[in-house]
Amino acid sequence: ISFMVSISGWVLVSSTLPTDYWKVSTIDGTVITTATYWANLWKTCVTDSTGVSNCKDFPSMLALDGYIQACRGLMIAAVSLGFFGSIFALFGMKCTKVGGSDKAKAKIACLAGIVFILSGLCSMTGCSLYANKITTEFFDPLYVEQKYELGAALFIGWAGASLCIIGGVIFCFSISDNNKTPRMGYAYNGATSVMSSRTKHPGAGDLKATNPSKQFDKNAYV
Question: Which three-class secondary structure state does DSSP give residue 191?
Answer without folding.
Answer: helix
